[in-house]
Amino acid sequence: MHKHSFRRSCAALAATTSLVLAASACGGTTKQDVAEEGGSTTTAGKADPGAPTKKGLTVGFLPKQVNNPYFTVADKGGEKAVRQLGSTYKEVGPSSGTDTAGQVSYVNTLTQQQVDAMAVSAQDPGALCTALKQAMKNGVKVVTYDSDTRPECRHAFISQASAEDLGRTQVRLLAEQIGHKGEIAILSAAQTATNQNAWIEIMKDELKDPKYKDIKLVKIAYGDDDAQKSFQQTQGLLQEHPQLKGIISPTTVGIKAAAQYLSGSKYKGKVRLTGLGVPNDMRKYVKNGTVEAFELWDPAKLGELAARTAVALSSGQITGKEGETFDAGPMGEYTIGEDGVITLGKPTVFDAKNVDDFDF
Fold first, then answer.
1. pLDDT digit string, tens, across residues 170-197
2. Which of 44, 52, 173, 275 has the fewest CB atoms within 10 Å, measured from its CB?
3. Is the separation of the CB atoms in 57 and 311 below 8 Å?
């Protein structure tokens, strides 16, 4: 059984926290305010690790986008775990990755339907706060996964890997591929995406290291997790910066679209591409020489951990406080870190040697 006890470093936490506060649409709420509203990770009752796992719960999953292949895999992992734990699973969500108002209305719908818990991947760090606080006030346990809201607007956040690990490893991967020299760009998702922004801040910090003195970040482009827009943004990057040596795309939709563009262009094999990708999307681009290596976590495991955390919260085994531990079944034992963050584990690097070993 694996033990996972993670803490984000101060630098990562500062980067994430400052970003979340800066981008927040419902600023000015303190933990005391939340306590008075009746929902908070800081005022919850005492955890009972030995409490029996409740059955017959209803757990709602609200991804950023329902028809996104990444969230399909993640939510299937969540569904499987919910069913194994003897509870009912439901999924709702917008069909666009930038429909924040739609996400808010789905949170309200799940609250009205009196689900016991919800797992939400937030499109925007602050926009869902009011709705999520209302859900918590109504007794709903709120877990965020993949992309967080502000800490006081949920009980726990399931992080893919630490922001530190993901930000720094993507820079290191690309630096190795371009010989630590040349112009690079980042192709992100939406400008408001909490996780993307946290990783980008850490990428910038990593690039300050003297070993990257010959690498220059020339542009951050946003493809809004839309395949066509991401394809066009890649094309635009290469037109604007003909000397570009590499692109980091920390989004599965973005890296696939960028690989598609590069593989059919004169830049194939000349401009390096890395970032966060799904093996089934990226396999052909690894095999045809467009992409050397990329990384990700297993989204099915991320969804599974979100589900197991939601049920543990609903069962009173944890409340979301730092230092609490819980048994996530076959996944092992997890410890809750600072600000209610639970980290899945370190990212996996995929290349020609191992890409055929994975099917997601």
1. 999 999 999 999 999 999 999 999 889 9
2. 52
3. yes
Query: Do residues 239 and 126 share a domain?
Result: no
**79 dihedral zone (left: phi>0; alpha: psi -120 to 50; beta):** alpha
CATH number of residue 231's parent domain: 3.40.50.2300
The per-residue pLDDT for 6 is: 31
Q: How many other C-beta atoms can be found within 10 angstroms of the C-beta atom of residue 83? A: 13
β-strand pairing of 244-249 with 182-188: parallel
Domain that holds residue 116: 3-161+298-347
Q: Which residues of 147-168 are buried (b: 16+ CB within 10 A; e: fewer)?
A: bbbbbbbbbbbbbbbbbbbbbb
The string of pLDDT tens digits covering residues 48-102 is 999 999 999 999 999 999 988 889 999 999 999 999 999 999 999 999 888 899 9
198 and 148 share one domain = no
Same-domain check for residues 102 and 172: no
**Both tokens assigned to 152:** 């006081």
Enumerate residues 6+ apart whose C-beta is below 8 A from 355.
Answer: 279, 282, 283, 286, 287
Instruction: Tell me: do 46 and 119 sit in the same domain.
Output: yes
The answer to whether the CB of 336 falls within 8 A of the CB of 325 is yes
- CA angle, corner 274, sides to 272 and 278, nearest 5? 135
| Residue of 89, 93, 92, 67 whose CA lies nearest to 78 | 89
Q: Do 243 and 139 belong together in one domain? A: no
Tokens of 326: 């819980």
Residues 189 and 286 in one domain: yes
Residue in the structure block whose two tokens are 């029996």: 52
Structure-token pair, residue 165? 């690990």
